[in-house]
Amino acid sequence: MSSVDFLSEEPVIDLKSDTITKPSAEMRRAMSEAEVGDDVYGEDPTVARLEKKAAELLGKEAALYVTSGTQGNLVSLLTHCGRGDGAIVGKDSHILNNEGGGLCALGGIVAMQTDDGGSLPSVANLNYLLHPKDNVHFAQAKLLCLENTHNRGGGHASSPLEVAELVDWAHEHGLAVHVDGARLFNAAVAQKVEPSELARGVDSVQICLSKGLGAPMGSLICASRDFIERARFWRKKVGGGLRQVGIVAAAGLYALEHHVARLAEDHENARSIEEILRKGGLRVPEVSRPTNMVYFGVEDEAGADKLLAACRRRRVVFNKTAPDTFRLVTHLNISREQAIEAAKIIVEEYRG
Ligand SMILES: Cc1ncc(COP(=O)(O)O)c(C=O)c1O
Q1: Distances, alpha carbon 330 to alpha carbons 9, 21, 290, 340, in Å
Q2: Architecture of domain 13-18+261-351
Q3: What is the pLDDT of residues 5-54, one digit of tens each?
Q4: Ligand 1 within 6 A of CB of 39
């Protein structure tokens, strides 16, 4: 798949995802000095500190450290829904499209799809999904899932007000709300709001430490104390109970303490790339509240493959997401200079 030799000394400008960041020397030091214990026994002080900090930042009573965003979403859904219950998910959501169908495969949860238009579903569309409770033909929706920022929506950030409207709707109809906040901190920084404002009233939220925040792994589910205690049972069932995991939780703590405010730089770099690509004639769809992603396209499929290969030869790496569309993501290991250089190379290769 890759024509780039990642072992060579020559630098690569790797924009395929914000998951590719490598821990800095300071983060590695925090990891090597971490106090640890057996977290399945609840004896890892670093995990306890990380969970406390995440819960505070999200305005929730408690938090649970899990291995990944996928596991955080799965454990949350398993905690909210039983077999045959419905979870409303966006048709473009990561939970539905990119997590191996875990909610159906492992939870027997019915994925009730709604059009989220690359951000949030509309109340009108949601009303359409609610079925009469006294009719045996219908699975009953128990949960509404939202994604903020929205990955396939170009990194669109939803506002506290937009989220609140859907939380009110869900609670009025007896549904709980889960937010896939893999990049919730990007959404908060982009709008200059506290992460807790984006989680107000939400019943569970999953945040990733391994995306823009730059930790090597780990996510947190933040919710009420009661929910977290129930989620702990599900985490164990899916193999997520870990032992001296403070070693990596320390990287997560470091990330929350040092890498949140700087997400604004990633957003600025993405806007600069976007501008250069647009001026260079590439098709870059508007995202009304953008963050660290840029989706862009060319006219035809053959041209897309040629462009991807030519950029890879010049050591600029990004992903193809559709026959004529690409995605690039800015992150901690991409400097302003590299962002601009990459955009110029893409334009040069596009123009041939
Ligand atoms: C929106 C969203 N949710 C969840 C995940 C899953 O995270 P992980 O790769 O840690 O399982 C991702 C991963 O990129 C994501 O983009």
Answers
A1: 21, 10, 12, 11
A2: Alpha-Beta Complex (3.90)
A3: 777 777 799 999 999 999 999 999 999 999 999 999 999 999 999 999 99
A4: no
Tens digit of each residue's pLDDT (9 = 90 or more) over 206-254: 999 999 999 999 999 999 999 999 999 999 999 999 999 999 999 999 9
148 C-beta closer than 6 A to ligand 1: no
Every domain of the chain with CATH number 3.40.640.10 lies at: 25-258
Distance (Å) from CA 209 to ligand 1 centroid:
10
69 Cβ inside 6 Å of ligand 1: yes
User: Rounded to the nearest whole angstrom, what is the distance from the C-alpha of residue 25 to the centroid of ligand 1?
Assistant: 25
Q: Which atom of ligand 1 is nearest to the CA of 217?
A: 10
Cα torsion angle, 130, 136, 138, 144, sign:
positive
Residue pair 246/217 in contact (Cβ under 8 Å)? The answer is no
Is the beta carbon of 92 within 6 A of some atom in ligand 1? no
Please give the CATH architecture assigned to the domain spanning 25-258: 3-Layer(aba) Sandwich (3.40)
Supply angle C-alpha 339, 344, 350, rounded to 5. 125
